[in-house]
């Protein structure tokens, strides 16, 4: 049923996703919640008729065995940590990012910061409205300005809750960005395209390329 709930917003005026990117799935060999999230991703791909080969995944935590298992399922592994900075180009793309850090969503929005590109995105992940409610507006606008700016240009529907999977998909919503809504935002919204840096950010829930380099040296 949740797979059908995701299809509903995708059958609106936007074109259905032609491909999928999954970040932050986690250690599914050891973690039952991550296994459920992987199973749901596979059901979604089937429901949306996206071939597994058009679904790319990245999580710095994957073990070699997990990477091999994903390959055996026909899925692709992204070769490097994009930090969420994945431009969609001309392809309508589903981003499957359950329980990812706020910076990852913010980076993704920044990488597609135009009405045309954002209208091709569907994001399944932590509720943006929930982020807005929990964060001081000053912090939201300073650290996650692209989430803050897109709130008026998006639609959001919570995934239906299921008692068995409360911890797996809690606070998870489907987000999409209708072109007409985005075009109603003021021109100044689109003029500021500075790359997010997160200098003052205390709870940065993202593993960055330079962080990994520092950890390995």
Task: Provide a concise account of the structure shown.
With about 220 residues, the chain is α/β, with parallel strands linked by helices. The chain has twelve helices and seven strands. Helix 1 packs across helix 2.
| Oligomeric state of this protein | single chain
Q: Helix count?
A: 12
Please state the average pLDDT score.
Answer: 88
CATH architecture: 3-Layer(aba) Sandwich
The CATH topology, please?
A: Rossmann fold
Distance between the termini: 47 Å
What strand line-up does the widest sheet have?
3-2-1-4-5-7-6
Helix/strand/pairing class, anyone? alpha/beta
- Tell me about the largest β-sheet: 7 strands, mixed
Tell me the β content: 5-15%
* Topology pattern, helix = H, strand = E: HEHEHEEHHEHHHEHEHHH
Count of discrete domains? 1
Poorly predicted segments: 212-217
Shape: globular
Domain SRR1-like: 15-176
Family: Belongs to the SRR1 family.
Protein name: SRR1L protein
InterPro entries: SRR1-like, SRR1L
Can you give a write-up of this model?
The chain is of the alpha/beta class and 217 residues long. It has a single domain (19-191), classed as Rossmann fold (3-Layer(aba) Sandwich). 42% of the residues lie in helices and 14% in strands. The protein contains 12 helices and 7 strands. The protein has a 7-stranded mixed beta sheet with strand order 3-2-1-4-5-7-6. α2 links the parallel β1 (19-23) and β2 (55-58). α1 (2-10) crosses α2. The longest helix is centred in the N-terminal third of the chain and has 16 residues, at 32-47. The protein is globular and about 45 Å long. Residues 212-217 have low confidence and may be disordered.
